[in-house]
Amino acid sequence: MNSDHFDERSTSALMNIIQDKDVGNENRYAATQSVLRRWRQGVDLEFLIDLLLSESSRDRLRGAHYLAELGQEVEGLNVAATQLADDALSDCRRAFVEYTVNSGRYDQTISNALAKCLLDLNLHVRVEVINWAVPISDERFENFSQLVEAGAGWPEFRFPNPLSNDFWNASILKRAVRGLDIIRCIRDGKEIEQIKKDFPEEDSFIFDVIQFSRTRRERLAKWQDKSQY
Asked: In terms of C-beta density within 10 A (0-12 exposed, 13-18 middle, 19 or more buried), how is residue 134 classed?
């Protein structure tokens, strides 16, 4: 089937094709691309919104995958996308950050959600926020930093002993400040290897992901040079 054929089908029919395991991969891919084109234009968004807000974790993961594939803001998805920041699934929280990067949106709700994601125990989510914060404007980063340091997004501890709450609040503050300091170092142009040495408490995976992203073009150029011989 050609792409025109899929574009003539209803979104409901296309979603069924995508889920049908008896359909060939090529047709499922074509159906997916047709649906994504519609959603980028703001058409039939209710299908994606239903996935993002579903009680089924499998459906929300599907929705998060589609959201990342869109690669742009779609106004009708903003509310549902932001709700992923509080999802129990780390892939959904990560999809929220990716959508924020692609959309360029920033307001009080989003900033609080990003602050929470910076403190996420899942390293993929934490590093996505770090990567988001590196290229943003000085004004926006200053606002974000103040929110994080003031406690935005922090978990609320309710131990009977208030000293236990103080212990974990101090731990969260330390991790929050460390994340902001790492971002500042990258924004200032410091080498990743040096930053890694300066912050031994941070998991090395964070720096590996950042370095991997920053050296993508260099690796591609080297690979292309080798392939010519």
From this structure: middle
Total residues found in the chain within this entry: 229
Asked if residue 48 lies in contact with residue 36, where contact means CB atoms within 8 angstroms, the answer is no
Q: Give the C-alpha distances (Å, rounded to integers) separating 150 from 144, 146, 177, 218, 221.
A: 10, 6, 11, 39, 43
Distances (CA, A) of 76 to 72, 73, 149, 159, 186: 12, 9, 32, 40, 34
Contact between residue 14 and residue 6 where contact means Cβ atoms under 8 Å apart: yes
- Residue range 111-144, pLDDT digits in tens: 999 999 999 999 999 999 999 999 999 999 999 9
pTM (predicted TM-score): 0.90
The structure tokens listed for 159 are 């131990």
Give the tokens for residue 99. 């959508």
